[in-house]
Amino acid sequence: MRPMTEGNLKAAFAGESQAHMRYLAFADKAEKIHADMYKSAKAEADAGRDVAIGKVYICPVCGYTVEGDTPDKCPVCGAQRKLFKEF
Q: Which of 59, 64, 71, 84 is the most buried (most CB within 10 A)?
């Protein structure tokens, strides 16, 4: 194993910082979608109706959630359709 130099450590830190920021951006977008889904469900419940939903799929990479058909690629992180998991 080669010794860690200041340059190696600086590059590793930069990579981790970028990954962290990308993860937070994914989480922010996915949570906004979740909030909209909850808002719609609450409106139905407030009106005394059951919430009628179809199949729900979740992107395991970023948490994007969709009711119905999955997109060809996740609109948040770009993951392929085949990766989505049915909830």
A: 59
Break the chain into its structural domains and give their ranges: 6-86
Q: Which residue has the tokens 């729900």?
A: 56
Q: Using the structure block, give the residue that is written with the tokens 């009106």.
A: 47
CB atoms within 10 A of CB 26: 18
- pTM for this structure? 0.70
Residue 66: its H or E element:
strand 65-67
Whether domain 6-86 has CATH 2.20.28.10: the reply is yes
Q: Which two tokens mark 81?
A: 């359709």
State the distance between the two ends of the chain, measured CA to CA, in whole angstroms: 43
The C-alpha angle 79, 83, 87, rounded to 5 degrees, equals: 115
